[in-house]
């Protein structure tokens, strides 16, 4: 039966914010999986951290948990360990995931925790009105870097592949069907799924035109089973932005390994 995934909460994102497009993709992906018998809605738990993205749990009529800034991964890991039957998905921001919470992200990927994380990557701290984050481009001028950031941006895709993530993908919030497909595949994957969603902040750093000129969908067959090729695909020397599933591998999950030692 088709689930009702909407809530009565008023959407308070800025009008036109691409977070709303991610919400549509997420709802469509979950609805399709439930109707297709691939997911039981009562088994789904969605977590979020702090940031503009974090409001998404208010708008999803599923089991939800909103944690502290940067701590969405330990919350998700705890839920999954406590009840491995649950499907645990989570949203976080780039500040959340790559600054405050980076160590959690790295170790969850390394352990292959069976959780699925969607990063709403708008390349700055948006909720606190525009400070540089780990993925802000060099030269970015914001509240904390009025003369321009002097730092090279962090490459989350390369990092996730380097530390052992078994599902690594990137999509663009403006491509609702493309994002829906990636979210479905991430949820279906057994093990740690990492999805970087390019989500321009139209209020403090509107990169929509810049992004649209540079994104392209990769031929996933080229790299999806080959870690070296996946790393080459995400480590580019130009400013193009590849989208797609770069890597998808099978490996024992953290929860399976825990079960064997009787924890
Ligand atoms: Fe969206 Fe940016 Fe507004 Fe936050 S500040 S709701 S990310 S447009």
Describe this structure in words.
The structure is a single chain. The protein is of the alpha/beta class. It has one domain: Rossmann fold (3-Layer(aba) Sandwich), CATH 3.40.50.970. The protein contains ten helices and ten strands. It has an eight-stranded mixed β-sheet with strand order 2-1-3-4-8-7-10-9, with helices on both faces. α9 links the parallel β9 and β10. α1 (19-35) packs across α7, α4 (94-100) crosses α5 and α6 (156-162) packs antiparallel against α9. It is globular and about 55 Å long.
Protein traits:
alpha/beta, 10 helices, binds iron/sulfur cluster, Rossmann fold, two-stranded antiparallel sheet, 10 strands, single chain, 263 residues
